[in-house]
Specification:
Sulfite Oxidase, Chain A, domain 2; alpha+beta; 10 strands
């Protein structure tokens, strides 16, 4: 019984740490990076360009392993719309995300293309302190990566594509 309790305590601690890393890091990262030097295609967007894209608002509750963190109307850009900038994505198997602090998560392409999955920059009509957050309704908060700096489409055949979000004042000409 003692071992089961200890194992449960360790699992909750690891889950809480993952949630903190996903939600609690508010370092001011102003660029979303969806790149890789081995990519077959690279796109660059700055934060202001991302905010000019068509918006979507979804209601979602962020909780990590049963611990409530936040809920409300999240506004941003549908992830599928951002990924469409890379062209046909039928060959992709997964979408990898990295944050400015090194945290990462992966979604299947079918999950990433859901209409309610967005890259949010507002919660309840207020800019969020972390600039960007992946919002995945009904998913564990550990997957809701914040301060996104890189998004990469992974093709099982090896030709990966990437998108970058540059700092507010940079453009890619």
């Amino acid at each position: 019984m003692r071992r089961i309790y200890l194992a449960a305590l360790v699992a909750l601690t690891v889950g809480a740490i993952a949630c903190y890393l996903a939600y609690g890091n508010y370092s001011k990262v102003s660029d979303l990076n969806i790149p890789d030097e081995n990519s077959s295609k690279q796109i660059y967007l700055n934060y202001n360009e991302l905010k000019k894209m068509p918006t979507s608002t979804v209601y979602a509750e962020l909780d990590c392993l049963g611990f409530f963190v936040s809920k409300g109307n999240w506004t941003g850009v549908r992830l599928g719309l951002v990924l469409d900038k890379l062209g046909p994505i039928q060959q992709a198997g997964t979408v990898d995300f990295k944050a400015g602090d090194g945290y990462s998560t992966t979604l299947s392409i079918s999950s990433a293309m859901r209409g309610d999955v967005i890259i949010a920059y507002e919660l309840n009509n207020t800019l969020i302190p972390e600039k960007t957050r992946l919002v995945i309704p009904l998913a564990n908060g550990g997957d809701w990566i914040s301060n996104i700096t890189q998004i990469k489409l992974i093709n099982p055949q090896g030709s990966n594509s990437s998108i970058y979000l540059l700092p507010d004042d940079q453009t890619n000409n």
